[in-house]
User: Fold Branched-chain-amino-acid transaminase from Mikania micrantha.
Amino acid sequence: MAAPLNLQNMQLIFANHQSNPRIQTTAFHFSQFRLRPTSPRRSQFHVIKNSLIEASHVYDDVPLLSASEAIERLRSSRESCKRTLRYLAMYSSVFGGIVTDEGAMVIPMDDHMVHRGHGVFDTAAIVDGYLYELEQHLDRFLGSADKAKIKPPFDKQTMKRILVQTVSASSCRNGSLRYWLSSGPGDFQLSPSGCHLSTLYAIVIQDQSPPSYKGIKVITASIPIKPPQFAIMKSVNYLPNVLSKMEAEENGAYAAIWLDEQGFVAEGPNMNVAFVTQDNVLLMPPFDKILSGCTAKRVLELAGDLVKNKKIRGVQVKDVSVEEGKEAQEMMLIGSGVVVRPVLQWDDKIIGNGKEGAVTESLRNLILDDMKSGPSTVRTAIPY
Assistant:
């Protein structure tokens, strides 16, 4: 049982720890306090008691680190984590160059992308030493920046050259390249007027886990969808997307499907949705209120081969009701992360026969072949 708190015990505690310099740096000196007679209940000396709680704990001093020590600690922290992702190279326009040490892959805290979410981003896949649809992603990237009122620090060709060189420096032949435009560092105010220059960041990511195209379950999202003004730009404001994904995982699903304000099918948290109707038509919601998916648009182009081979009757981009979607014979998610992945269940409704359909599989194979052997319009060679 702990000893009662009284003046004698407190003096003993201080005497026992007098030689401990770590205590001395954080403790209040006992002599600073004057005891005042009060009621018997107050005789525990509440002022000193509060100070004693502070003083009797052994606090580790917060170290003052040098830049090299901070980098080493960040590097060690990365190395100690069990993860399948590796970050092979990073470009920062703040540095004006590329680093390959994970300990140096940092951005300023006063960058408005960090504390105000004023930034946009995009991603391109690296497949067999080529960047897939880099031009298409860059066009969307710059369109998002324009909508977010961020003036890029470089023109498109300079950015493309920087991105290609970053991948080259990483020696990564299969992975992904993610890049950001921010209003830049400068202060912690709301307006970016104090930011002296916008910033470009890019990082090469290698995922060591094998891809999965296994059929999945989705639910209808209860998290509100972003208004069209924000949904059509790929900004770093992804909290609704994060909450939507978490809601799905909490309900044993892979993703949650958003509906627009009229109740039509919109999109997933970071992928588009498509269906194969009962009369064998590939059906996709329009892009006027959701993010224009580069992979989804490429799927629409490649689907022409399935029409020619009479695997589908046609392709349509139009509003899709929930009822129509759930009655489809096939449903799929499409995006650079999932490629083309079959949805076997939506809420309590089994889609089709509960197995991956032939059209979904064919579209995935078309995209994967396009990544490896498509035309120069969708593949940018990396000079390693």
Notes: The chain has twelve helices and 15 strands. The radius of gyration is 28 Å.
